[in-house]
Design brief:
3-stranded antiparallel sheet, 43% helix, mainly alpha, 2 helices
Length: 141
């Protein structure tokens, strides 16, 4: 008799109740996910633009100190460690040289085709061109 009362009082959810809750959660996820994922891609592109701007400011500070931008061979590492330049006053980036939001290094060329230097990321796909999250992020645009 006492055992029957314990069974009734410790009754859990039925399989049907659990399935109904899982279906509701699945429907909500199906409605929210398509609206959320494109914003994640735009966030990464915005982060890449901000990082390119920050690196560009560091390059300008480097040029003010040394009289010229680092060469393509010296690369962006010249912002963090002296490449043998006499008037170097760095490091010019506080937290080190960042990778782009997709985990790839930024591409730097000096002299650039579009200005004193070109600094860019090829986006998510790592290839020139593309649309959406695959679009290139360029310092001259």
């Amino acid at each position: 008799m006492l055992f029957n009362k314990m069974l009734r009082s410790s009754r859990g959810f039925t399989l049907v109740e659990l399935l109904v809750v899982m279906v509701i959660i699945g429907l909500l996820a199906a409605l929210v996910a398509p609206k959320l994922f494109p914003k994640l891609g735009k966030g990464k592109q915005a982060a890449a633009k901000a990082q390119i701007e920050l690196i560009g400011q560091a390059l300008d500070h480097y040029r003010l100190d040394t009289g010229l931008y680092p060469t393509t061979d010296q690369g962006l590492n010249a912002l963090m460690s002296n490449p043998g330049v006499e008037k170097w006053q760095g490091p010019y980036l506080k937290k080190g040289l960042p990778l782009d939001p997709w985990g790839k290094p930024y591409i730097y060329q000096q002299p650039g085709s579009h200005g004193d230097y070109d600094l860019y990321s090829y986006g998510r796909d790592g290839k020139p061109g593309g649309e959406g999250e695959d679009e290139d992020i360029l310092s001259w645009q």
